Write the structure tokens for this entry.
Amino acid sequence: MPDLPGVPDAVRVVRADRGAVLVLPAHALAPHDDAPVGRSGAPDGPDGHPRRVVLDRDGLVPGPDDERTVPTVGDWLLLDETPDGPRVRALVPRRTALVRDTAGKTSQTQALAANVDVVLVVEHLDPDPDLGRVERLLTLAWRSGAQPVVVLTKADLVPDPEGMAAEVADVALAVDVHAVAVPTGAGLDGVRALLAPGMTLVVVGPSGAGKSTLVNALAGREVMATGGRRADGRGRHTTTHRELVPLAGGAVLIDTPGIRGVGLVADAEALDTTFADVADLAARCRFGDCHHTGEPGCAVQEALEAGELAPRRLDSWRRLEREAAYQARRADVRLAALERDRWKKITKDMHRGLRGPGRPRG
Ligand SMILES: Nc1nc2c(ncn2[C@@H]2O[C@H](COP(=O)(O)OP(=O)(O)OP(=O)(O)O)[C@@H](O)[C@H]2O)c(=O)[nH]1
Ligand SMILES: [Zn+2]
């Protein structure tokens, strides 16, 4: 059973659309017989189908500290039953959240999945894996509070998957790396070992990496449509929404559409975890504010010259640091705007109060 002490009646969001969410009760997520399933992967049964809960008009739910929040896949919600159907009373505080920065002049973030234990960073071996993308997704994963794991797909299409996996492992510090081939089943057991009851795993990676194929292989059935021709002949299928899939063993998987250039939400700690090697070197530079561009006593430059640090790795770190700093500045601008609006409202209310008994209060 999912571990939610003190919140016995919570339901979990399996899919979030603009004005409504689909939810399942905790017992539908507990280990179950692999009965025939609906499209959403929920077990059939009297109450096995996900329930649709219509949201307030703003599409938000009351979160912790009264802050209204956009619900996302993996969230736990408390419901009230009303004559008009179920309403969301509250969002249970998120243990972890995979958050990305969305495009926009001022910063806005979007939670892709909530209450996740493991982030599966999926990357293909054929064509060659993109190390920079793996580093970016690992940073996103560390920032979420969940444990990242790298899954390299299409191992059946390359001559030396283990050698390639070792290269990826060099840039994925403190992270397990699995090479898998779904057609042969090779390497899947290593990933299956993560599927303990109550665990929530989210799958992220570029379009075509094989995320839905992996989810189906782990579920042991077709829960997500995958690439290749669609049955209706209308070209390639690609996942268009995020969805939580309960597995028979009591773990849940969240599939996501391929994310192109996910915006990094600033987090120095996450970057330092992904790039622990570079951060350790930088901490040994003679000057605390070393830019690693030729200063005397620069441990980063020394490691580069000694061939102990790959120039690609340093470039990647710099790029992600710049991006995170940019995002943080935009977040500050947005926060400042919000503060301004808040003060405007407070002073307006004050003036109204000073004008004396205009309207009755309360
Ligand atoms: N040979 C081989 N092909 C694979 C493997 N995994 C996935 N594929 C193929 O790669 C293509 C893309 O797989 P999908 O699972 O749809 O990829 P996805 O990451 O879910 O893509 P989006 O839905 O667009 O985000 C499909 O044609 C799969 O059959 C694998 O391990 N080996
Ligand atoms: Zn330096």
Observations:
- Confidence is low (pLDDT under 50) at residues 35-46, 229-234.
- The two ends are 45 Å apart (CA to CA).
